[in-house]
Design goal:
alpha/beta; 14 helices; 25% strand; globular
Length: 508
């Protein structure tokens, strides 16, 4: 049990003062340790870290005040009907609003969350530099999308990348290749916060360095850090001075998150005193999305409810597709002046996510994080829009990668759209086993990507390879037992088949 857990378990009667004293001691120890860490850095490094630590101190202070779950389950209500609008209504309305596309685009900035590494897919460096389609990386596709928009409408929509200390150096090197593209690219770095020992609640870092024994001592504190980092970088003020009004924020690995002109037009057509300051794109939940955050009405405000905030007794209810029908895609449209106002008033309210980790040496630490969508309750006239599933196409695993590399999707100007040749719009369910986890292994096992136009479900487990021009249709399950290997021959057509055991077909 950590000190903060111990504090919250002490009986309330007569102990409030003792609890407060303990909190003050913990906070004082943390501040001293942060000062000591700052003294180990050089001028510029210490200056940047000082800003980061100021943000961390606020988060740590709030963390010490938290008592129990951050939501009272009995107070949770479904959002009012008008607080989540169907996309179709926005689309039809957007066409009749009379705002010119050029004018609307002149007010827009595209922001991509680019802090993540490709380690979960067996790749080194930023995830955004993984090739996903025809040798194009996530970043290439993003640049192509915005360049196409700028050329088509004679616009100047800039791209902003929120990097982390893990991704910044590699990203900066690669940005040079886009110098002659019609997209202005800006970057800023999210904060670098210290991981803290679960028992002592003090930083595990010995100095400000990022290498050696300190390599695991730091973390980027979740995408909720965008507001403070964007503001502190000076870029927020610069873009407001250029006349920009909204940012469209999304994860760089969500290939469905393209600029939607109907949503933008809807935002720009409202009277300035009733401007919607925050739009969250949500979509209908399926069994695959049970862990995704959902929108609720709580104490009169639209609020994001994440699984980490749900009391254990209600987790199954939270996962239910019947009670909570939609989930957050993390495609967000946010007012720049509103971010500035909330940052300057220090009134951006986001729940703390306590993320436990175990370091390589076995030490248990915690990371204090926030989520960008959690700030929805701080903004005026916030709105959810229930968008088509096609706007949520994340690539988190090689199973997702197989889908987007296949003939299910066609690629045009950086945007992927479901092929017209597929007779039904649902995405097949693909589950590749551990032999396919790393991108390098995945690519080695496919001589070419199978035809998946008529696929419903594909499960592959064990040592399996695919020859050229294989087609999979309906439900296909391929399981190679331990020690066996299955080679699917070139030109094979598998429809509603289960293949198991050992199948090695040699060409003659």
């Amino acid at each position: 049990m950590s000190l903060v857990e111990g504090l919250s378990k002490i009986a309330p009667n007569g102990m409030a003062e003792f609890q407060e004293k303990m909190r003050q001691q913990l906070e004082s120890s943390m501040h001293k340790e942060l000062e000591r860490l700052l003294s180990t850095g050089n001028g510029e490094e210490a200056k940047v870290s000082q800003k980061d630590f100021d943000g961390f101190k606020k988060l740590f202070h709030r963390f010490l005040q938290v008592k129990g779950p951050s939501v009272d389950w009995a107070k949770i209500n479904r959002p009012p009907e008008d607080s989540i609008q169907p996309y179709e209504k926005i689309r039809v309305k957007g066409q009749s609003d009379g705002v010119s596309v050029g004018v609307a685009l002149s007010k827009l900035v595209v922001v991509k969350l680019n802090g993540g590494l490709g380690t979960s897919m067996g790749c080194k460096g930023p995830k955004s530099l993984i090739s996903v389609r025809n040798e194009n990386t996530f970043l290439d596709l993003t640049v192509q999308q915005i360049e196409h928009l700028n050329k088509t409408y004679n616009a100047n929509v800039p791209l902003v990348l929120m990097n982390s200390f893990n991704t910044d150096e590699d990203t900066q090197k690669i940005l040079q290749k886009y110098t002659h593209h019609r997209v202005k690219i800006h970057t800023f770095n999210q904060s670098r916060y210290p991981r803290i020992n679960k028992e002592s609640l003090l930083p595990v870092a010995t100095n400000l360095g990022l290498t050696g024994e300190n390599a695991e001592s730091w973390y980027p504190p979740g995408h909720g850090d965008i507001y403070a980092s964007f503001y502190n970088s000076g870029l927020l003020d610069q873009l407001i001075a250029e006349g920009k009004e909204y940012i469209f924020v999304s994860n760089i690995d969500n290939l469905g998150a393209t600029v939607d002109l109907h949503i933008l037009s809807h935002l720009m057509s409202q009277p300035s005193d009733k401007r919607c300051e925050f739009v969250m794109e949500v979509t209908d939940k399926t069994r695959a999305d049970v862990k995704g955050g959902t929108l609720i009405q709580y104490e009169g405000k639209l609020r994001l409810l994440e699984i980490a905030q749900v009391p254990k007794a209600h987790v199954d209810e939270f996962k239910s597709v019947t009670k909570f029908k939609i989930f957050n895609t993390n495609n967000l449209w946010i007012s720049l002046p509103a971010i500035k106002r909330l940052q300057e008033k220090n009134s951006m309210d986001m729940e703390i996510i306590v993320n436990p980790k175990t370091l390589d040496g076995g030490l248990n630490v915690i990371q204090l994080e926030t989520a960008v969508g959690a700030a929805i309750k701080s903004f005026d006239n916030a709105l959810g829009i229930n968008v088509p599933r096609s706007r949520f196409l994340p690539v988190k695993t090689t199973s997702d990668l197989l889908l987007v590399m296949s003939n299910l999707y066609s690629l045009e100007a950086g945007s992927l759209t479901m092929s017209e040749k597929r007779e039904f719009p649902t995405t097949p369910h693909v589950k590749l086993g551990s032999s396919f986890t790393k991108v390098q292994d995945f690519l080695r096992r496919f001589e070419s990507i199978p035809d998946m136009l008529e696929l419903d479900h594909l499960t592959v487990s064990g040592d399996v390879t695919f020859g050229k021009q294989v087609a999979v249709k309906g439900t296909v399950i391929i399981i190679a037992n331990h020690g066996d290997r299955i080679d699917i021959p070139a030109g094979a057509m598998l429809e509603n088949k289960i293949v198991s055991g050992n199948l090695r077909i040699l060409d003659h």
